[in-house]
Amino acid sequence: MANPSAVCNGHLHHHQKQNNLLKSGVCKKNGITKGMKKNGVSNGTLYKKTFIEHFEQAPMYVAVLTFVGFGVGTIFGYLRDFMRAWGLEKRNIAEEREQQKDFVPLYQDFETFYTRNLYMRIRDNWNRPVCSVPGPQFDLMERVTDDYNWTFRFTGRTIKNVINMGSYNYLGFAETDVNALKTVTRELQKYGTGICSTRQEMGTLDKHVELEKLVAKFLGVEDAMVFGMGFATNSMNIPALVGKGCLILSDELNHTSLVLGARLSGATIRIFKHNNMQSLEKLLRDAIIYGQPRSHRAWRKIIILVEGIYSMEGSIVRLPEIVSLKTKYKAYLYLDEAHSIGAVGATGRGVVEYFGMSPGDVDVLMGTFTKSFGAAGGYIAGKKDLVDFLRTHSHSAVYATSMCPPVAEQIIRAMKCLMGLDGTTQGLQRVRQLGKNTRYFRRRLHEMGFIIYGNDDSPVVPLLLYMPGKIGAFARRMLEKNIGVVVVGFPATPITESRARFCVSAAHTREMLDTVLNALDELGDFLQLKYSRYSKSSHPELYEETRFEHED
Q1: How far is CA 42 from CA 34, 35, 148, 397, in A?
Q2: Which of 56, 175, 243, 255 is 20 to 30 A (C-alpha) from 415?
């Protein structure tokens, strides 16, 4: 039998203790949630399927060596700054003009310390120019640096057929097939590329109306509104929904667009620990009991902000428990499905479908078309009253240029494919293939001994690297093997949790995934990245075992 802790969410979350996981009823026995009482509801009645996530802590020596690595880098950074100040090393960074030496610095010197002394050493691993469609494989423009990553020059050579493990092309709709794009080409010829107006002026076309009706039908809600930019869908609409005297309860790992929208709203913001229902319920209870600071008046409204799939952790929101809490305390729920719509659920309808819940359980459904649909923009959906309110009050509707028609048609094409309205089952096949690829990729990484975060059904797969020196080494060596990866470090992640983030696609073939996995196996041994302390199974079928007891 495989180690039960490695199969059932027994890995310690980096924000929670193991007993909290047990109390919240996430760990499974015989394929169902343990029926422990919480919020007056047995969690065994909330989850209709197994909910398995992994957040294994690294051994202590890894954390120590990670801090040592950052410490050494910081010491040498100060030494280099000293040399730059005395003219012993060339300064490549922006400087204040001599006439402004007495001003408060516009370029905060200390704030850019990390950028110029640590990030610059591995800068070549980001912003690589892609010169093809970001499908399962792409082409890169080769570049080199002569001044240690301060500047780059192109060699004129193209690196062909790099396996793409970084793009959010979950369902493979980022494609250039002529037959698939016939309708998009037709709309481009009919409407052109731009609207040159906002939705409230002369920027609403029949394509926008068609798309909004289709989105509402796809999600099973009364109405929907689409926007030309995914980021702005959050940042420009949250301020229209809440304001002064309102309370926002936000997951600590929410995307920057949610954070910015919350700050722009002027509402009071309180943070709860990631996916931690005890933390969220405490904030809700305190908000009801104590009300607003000083006056202690009741909050005008309380809204909970969460994501469907968290893009850096690969975890899935514990939606059944959050809906139970928001119902109990009469709060509103705003769900960002940027990474989950199209990617999870039996027919790609996101985490609401994944948990077998009703769209009516969520007050504000938000998602983007930039990932699973291979396009751009976003949507907000729900009750007709909500959407009608946003049509009048949304900053994006009033000030932002409308979505261009060819992009709208691409979304319609992909969504009809998912719904089977194109007369084929290709959309459903893509959703199923993504699920198979995701589970296969994650299972193999566990067997190899890597520490990976997130839910077993999440196509976002973070592989922990930890030490700063291994970030650059990992990405460079993977590119040498013709594999393109995304590496992430501080400040985008906690300082001790640098990682590589893989995005699995339905367009990846088994041969592609095996090529990546073989390269990872070899590189994991070379860079000593296999930190997992749980025993690796030589029998993959044991990972499907559901009859086991959790070790206390």
Answers
A1: 8, 5, 58, 43
A2: 255
Residues 308, 360 share a domain: yes
CB-based contact 402:197 (threshold 8 Å): yes
C-alpha to C-alpha distance for 175 and 193, rounded to whole angstroms: 19
Question: What does the alpha-carbon distance between residue 387 and residue 407 come to, in Å, rounded to a whole number?
Answer: 21
pLDDT at 102: 80
- Asked if pLDDT for residue 39 goes beyond 80, the answer is no
Question: Quick one: tokens of 438?
Answer: 């995701």
Angle between helices 510-526 and 468-480 (to 10 degrees): 140
Q: What is the pLDDT of residue 20?
A: 39
Residue 513 has pLDDT above 80, yes or no: yes
Between CA 249 and CA 251 the distance in angstroms is 7
Pick from 231, 203, 230, 206: nearest CA to 376: 230
- The SS3 assignment for 455 reads strand
Of 217, 546, 196, nearest in space to 403 by CA: 196
Strands 37-38 and 41-42: antiparallel
DSSP string, 250-314: EETT--HHHHHHHHHHT-EEEEE-TT-HHHHHHHHHHHHHH-STTT-PPPS-EEEEEESB-TTT-
Residue 378 parent element (H or E): strand 378-382
Q: Are residues 402 and 281 part of one domain?
A: yes
Q: Which of residues 112 and 474 earns the better pLDDT score?
A: 474
Q: Report how far apart, in Å, the C-alpha atoms of 272 and of each of 210, 372, 428, 474 are.
A: 38, 28, 36, 33
C-beta neighbour count of 183 within 10 angstroms: 15
Which residues does 469 contact at the CB level (< 8 Å), separation at least 6?
69
Residue 414 sits in the same domain as residue 434: no
Structure tokens at 54: 């992994």
User: Which of 310, 355, 314 lies closest to 336 in space, CA to CA?
Assistant: 310
User: What separation in angstroms does the CA of 196 have from each of 85, 200, 206, 288, 403?
Assistant: 49, 12, 15, 46, 10
CATH code for position 502: 3.90.1150.10
Nearest to 164 by CA among 507, 526, 414, 473: 507
Segment 144-156 mean pLDDT: 93
What range does the domain containing 67 cover? 52-164+425-533
Q: How far apart are CA 167 and CA 484, in angstroms?
A: 9
Residue-wise pLDDT tens digits, 193-232: 989 999 999 999 999 999 999 999 999 999 999 999 999 9
* Full DSSP string of 329-357: TT-EEEEE-TTTTTTSSTTS-HHHHHTT-
